[in-house]
Amino acid sequence: MKKIFKVIGIIALAAVIGFSMTACGEDDDSGGGGGGSTTTTTDGSGTTAHVHDWGDWTTTATCTEAGVETRTCKLDATHIDTRPVAALGHDYANWTQTTAPTEFADGEETETCSRDATHTETRTIPRLPFTTVANMGTWLAAQDENTAVTAYAVKLNVSDFGGGASVSGSVGATLLDNPTKFVSIDLSGSTFTAIPDQAFNAGMFSSTACAALTEIIIPDSVISIGNLAFNGCTNLTCVTLGSGVSSIGYSAFISCFDLASITVSPANTVYKVQNNCLLYNATTVVLVPSRVEGAITIPDGVTSIEMSAFLSCTRLTGVTIPDTVTSIGAQAFSGCYRLTSIDIPANVIAIGANAFNSCTGLTSITFKGMIAETDLGSELGGRFLSPFKGDLSEKYLAGGIGTYTTTTPVPEPANTWNPVWTKN
After folding, report:
1. For residue 328, how many other CB atoms are within 10 A of its CB?
2. pTM score, two decimals?
3. Residue 388, number of CB atoms within 10 A of its CB
């Protein structure tokens, strides 16, 4: 009988052990897929816990919202494990054009998320470049009035500029027909070879100019820019010259009071910009933008400062002229009223009419050489005019090399300033 009870006890113990071997215990497996780690714990009865046999992770996250991943034990469906998961993010396919652009309207293209077809993004395809000036005019006439800050960006690809602003149907005339529609014009795709005289001014004054032009990109095909081409374009801030420009007419950018920068194609072999100076063949200062601030050093090797080169550079406070300069053109520094002093190098042999007119802040001028009376000034508007205000020319011709100063106060209006100069 004792043997029987002993066998029964052994069988019962084996059953308990077998049951515990099929039950799930505690584990800290955070891996993916089925199976698990072989952690060993006790459940209080001293039995050994077995490994969870986990299923695959499933997720409730979306493209835009975080969720949780869940997995269930294959041995006991009441055992569930979860962990947070970040938003999946969009999985967009390629862009597909939905609306084709034209010269008159933007197009549109769309992309769709592969995870959720209700998630789409759209973007604008810019208008095509205008292929005729007339098309540009039609579109511009239909636009709302704007400001220089919100100028319309226009691309124009044409083979004919159409003449000066006084010629109906030209680029300039089209802008004058829409004086309250500010535009920046990109002509880089055009093929014409010249911008004509007074291209953006139908007369001689700012009142007849294209004041709504804010920026312009001149194509590589252009060889020449005519006289007074941009005269009076008072809101023009940026000009880009292409690689082909080899000639710029006189006063082409005169009275462009807002001009802040000029950029020249690196491939241009005739013009370049150095120290804020637009240079011709590295020897002539053609133009300095009116909005240039502070002091400028004209590059060494320059031999002449062209007519109106620094005209109305009202923020210019100083200029250094190299010894290589031999001539200073008419009105070269006219209107630079923040300029306080200047040295004229010994090699300068000619200074044009009104070269320093309206430089009301100028109180000291040093001459390092002598200039003949006939070359101290020039004809302008049918009469011979001195480069300086007041009696400086007379004092210099009598006193020669040296520094001349004035303390004569500037009256109102400033254009009546008639300073008396004294040699130090």
Report:
1. 28
2. 0.78
3. 25
